């Protein structure tokens, strides 16, 4: 990799990130700040994170190919590289059928988008691809630094590593709730998962992992919720996170639920202490 990601990163959507949280996460030793959602093509939110920190890597997870013009994204990449050399990784992806009226030929759209990034001289080693299924996972290995799976399990990580082979980036995201009351933790998890369990790319992937119709009903079964959102003490959560590393991940990307802004820092500090 042309950028150093570290073993652990932190993922949040733009409205949750801010200078104080970004600087705090860097000071705690996390290797990458991941900008979730669908960052705009100007990559201004990524620029804010880079300017708020000293050396940590910033990545997008992910820029939506349907919403962000490849040429503008490439120009923004080059601007960030000039201002903050070696610190930015461009994550791109196809987004969701349910959110895109013109969602057609998704695989061909990904290929065309990557072709446009090639033409604009965005280096292969400085971009990554949102990938869940086998075909796009293989494409991520062939055309980018590697894969950024979201809403997965260690078993998916194991399967993905087998498909990708060695030397290809694999950085899955996993959600956590630092809460020892199981019912409270599951309630927080279900509130967050509600918007994801109606999206076909996620449910199709989870079905490949053995989940069934009953698991998606009523906000998600306990089995599904517990697999997708780790909860408990920092020690208990760390065991679940490191299972991804044991399954072949290069980095595990942590998303803490249940708090906002700087209030997230104590949880990330507790995890960092254990993960070290």
Automatic annotation (TrEMBL):
It comes from the Bacteria. Pfam families: Bac_luciferase (PF00296). SUPFAM superfamilies: Bacterial luciferase-like. One of its GO terms (cellular component) is cytosol. Gene3D superfamilies: Luciferase-like domain. Residues 20-119 form the Luciferase-like domain. GO terms for molecular function: oxidoreductase activity, acting on paired donors, with incorporation or reduction of molecular oxygen. InterPro entries: Bact_Lucif_Oxidored (IPR050766), Lucif-like_OxRdatse_MSMEG_4141 (IPR019922), Luciferase-like_dom (IPR011251), Luciferase-like_sf (IPR036661). PANTHER family: CONSERVED PROTEIN (PTHR30137:SF18), LUCIFERASE-LIKE MONOOXYGENASE (PTHR30137). This is Luciferase-like domain-containing protein. It comes from Kribbella flavida (strain DSM 17836 / JCM 10339 / NBRC 14399).
């Amino acid at each position: 990799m042309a950028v150093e990601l570290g073993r652990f990163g932190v993922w949040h959507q733009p409205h949750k990130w801010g200078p104080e949280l970004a600087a705090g996460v860097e000071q705690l030793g996390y290797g990458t700040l991941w900008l979730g959602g669908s960052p705009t093509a100007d990559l201004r939110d990524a620029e804010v994170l880079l300017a708020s920190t000293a050396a940590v890597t910033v990545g997008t997870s992910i820029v939506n190919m349907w919403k962000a013009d490849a040429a503008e994204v490439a120009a923004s990449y080059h601007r960030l590289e000039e201002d903050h050399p070696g610190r930015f990784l461009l994550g791109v992806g196809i987004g969701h059928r349910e959110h895109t009226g013109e969602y057609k030929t998704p695989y061909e759209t990904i290929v065309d988008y990557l072709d446009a990034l090639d033409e604009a001289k965005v280096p292969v080693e400085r971009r990554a691809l949102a990938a869940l299924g086998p075909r796009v996972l293989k494409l991520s290995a062939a055309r980018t630094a590697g894969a950024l799976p979201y809403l997965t399990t260690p078993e998916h990580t194991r399967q993905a590593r087998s498909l990708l082979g060695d030397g290809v980036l694999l950085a899955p995201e996993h959600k956590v709730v630092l809460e020892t009351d199981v019912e409270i933790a599951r309630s927080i998890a279900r509130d967050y998962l509600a918007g994801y369990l109606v999206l076909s790319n996620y449910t199709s992937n989870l079905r490949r992992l053995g989940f069934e119709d009953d698991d998606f009903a009523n906000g998600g079964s306990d089995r599904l919720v517990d697999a997708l959102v780790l909860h408990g003490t920092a020690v208990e959560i760390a065991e679940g996170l490191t299972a991804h590393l044991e399954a072949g991940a290069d980095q595990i990307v942590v998303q803490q639920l249940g708090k906002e802004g700087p209030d997230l820092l104590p949880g990330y500090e507790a995890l960092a202490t254990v993960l070290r």
